[in-house]
Design a protein that fits this description.
Blueprint (H helix, E strand, L loop, with lengths): L2 E5 L8 H15 L5 E7 L1 H12 L7 E5 L19 E8 H7 L6 H8 L6
Parallel strand pairs: 1-2, 2-4
Antiparallel strand pairs: 3-4
Length: about 120
């Protein structure tokens, strides 16, 4: 199914092709290529706003995930009954925050793909 990457910020340049390629590799490894997934790149202001609303934490963060299937335990995969349920949900990447956290020797584009999935709502 589809992988949608949306860049809703203009602070940090996003290299979509390498990001998409690395996410597709992870999807293949996990065996979830048939599931839809949304990746949304946002700045500090927007990730902080989302973090405040959904986690009651008024600070920017690196990643917030919003699973489509809410009752799964860690490591479980959805078992959809209907075609519309083949959806993993959305992952918001605080790309400005991630960039600010990179050490001088780290490649931001590599760190960006490693960050996905560390925070869940």
């Amino acid at each position: 199914m589809s992988l949608v990457i949306r860049n809703l910020q203009r602070v940090i340049p996003i290299r979509r092709a390498p990001l998409r390629s690395k996410i597709e590799i992870v999807r293949r490894i996990l065996g979830v290529q048939k599931f839809d997934l949304g990746i949304i790149c946002v700045d500090n202001k927007n990730i902080q706003h989302i973090n405040r609303i959904y986690r009651d934490r008024n600070v920017p963060t690196d990643v917030l995930s919003f699973p489509f299937h809410e009752n799964l335990k860690a490591g479980e995969f959805p078992q959809p009954d209907f075609p519309d349920d083949y959806n993993l949900g959305d992952i918001f990447l605080g790309v400005e925050y991630i960039f600010q956290q990179c050490k001088e020797s780290e490649d931001y584009n590599d760190i960006l793909t490693v960050s996905g999935g560390t925070e869940s709502t």
